[in-house]
Amino acid sequence: MAQLLAASPGRVFTVTDLARRLGHSGGAVGNACETLVSRGEAERSGSKPRTYRATSATAAAAQHTVPPPPHPAPASTPQVPRQAPTPPPPNGRPVPIIRPNGQTYHPRALAKLPDVEALRRLREAQVAVLLYGPPGTGKTSLIEAAFPDLITVAGDGDTTVGDLIGEYTQDANGGYEFIYGPLVTAMQEGRALLLDDATLISPKVLAALYPAMDGRRQIQVKAHKGETITACDGFYVIAGHNPGVHGAVLTEALASRFSMQVQVGSDYDLAASLQIHRTAVRIARHLATLQQAGDLGWAPQLRELIAFQKIADVLGAEAAFANLVGIAPLEDRDTVAEIVTKATGRPVTALALGSQL
Question: Are 101 and 148 in contact (CB under 8 A)?
Fold first, then answer.
């Protein structure tokens, strides 16, 4: 891949161009390109369709790349390319993974594997996965870390079939052209598709996705001449579900499409290892225990604890504890305030502006 890009500096290649030249599937080529981009060894120059070109570091990367055979023998059965696992450091723990937004993801255990590796193997086997748990526990972070070629659909009650498949859009000349949606793009390019908050999307809208997930792996774009889209190797659907969110309904039809369903909770040991205030972590554990027992409706997750530490670093721990009380739902705020007050040894109320300075 790097050799091909480096041989034509300045030239822009589509995933289809590269796949045809290398004799590999579009999914494999797309994954490889995204890996090069994440290392700074290639540059993505376009998104519809995805295009790539060499950078100043591509030539050096090409020197360490083994060229593919000139005439690869066709496989009897197309195989979804598997991403190589990241080698663990000497202590045996998997190395953190940099997400597209630059933040670090620390892998957790899933079926005796690092969670990112488990998801990659499930993608290879075409086992659809639903991750469920409270907001802020790291569901999206895990999926972004596992799949560099990810396309994300942020689901809500207003999501339409057109948002998934595509719709006509007015062009610069006043005419109309059909722009494919994320589902079609993922199918054509063999990419992973995340339905974030999938259970907030109307079941009627989700029904447009189901033919792409079953044995047919096809959808019909009725709005665009009845065109039939067939999924390329590598196409994969994964979803996130927040059971406690108002309006989130996991229907039987949706649940049946996801053969594996994994609960995701906050890793408070990870929070402690990230040097988050020990008292804040202890409070979060206590609140989580009460929540699991049904005595409380809310507990801070890893997202809130990371925000806590950022606030503490800027404004001090006292303000961070007051904010922790303030972000609790009204029905739980008094209980949270009581627990925080007891843990810190001083009265804590929701953060608020004081008198004029």
Answer: no
What is the rounded distance in angstroms from the CA atom of residue 118 to the CA atom of residue 262? Answer: 11
Copy the structure tokens of residue 104: 């670090």
Residue type (1 letter), 118: A
Q: How far apart are CA 296 and CA 336, in angstroms?
A: 9
**Nearest partner of 38 among 114, 132, 124, 145, judged by Cα:** 145
pLDDT one-digit tens code per residue, 180-237 = 999 999 999 999 999 999 999 999 999 999 999 988 899 999 999 899 999 999 999 9
Contact 102, 63 (CB under 8 A): no
Beta carbons of 232 and 188 less than 8 angstroms apart = yes
With cut-offs at 50, 70 and 90, classify the pLDDT of residue 69.
very low
CA dist 337 and 283 (Å) reads 11
Distances 272 to 6, 32, 95, 283, 309 between C-alpha atoms, Å: 44, 35, 18, 12, 11
**255 backbone dihedrals φ, ψ, rounded to 5°:** -60, -35
103: region left, alpha or beta (phi > 0 left; psi from -120 to 50 alpha): beta
CB 2 within 8 Å of CB 62 = yes
3-state secondary structure string across 94-161: CCCEECCCCCEECCCEECCEEHHHHHHHHHHCCCCEEEECCCCCCHHHHHHHHCCCCEEEECCCCCCH
Residue 353 DSSP class: -
pLDDT tens digits for range 146-163:
999 999 999 999 999 999
Q: Cα 122 to chain center, whole Å?
A: 15
Q: What are the C-alpha distances in Å from 133 to residues 118, 137, 254?
A: 18, 7, 16
- pTM for this predicted structure: 0.71
Tokens of 76: 């009897």
- State residue 166 phi and psi, 5-degree precision: 130, 170
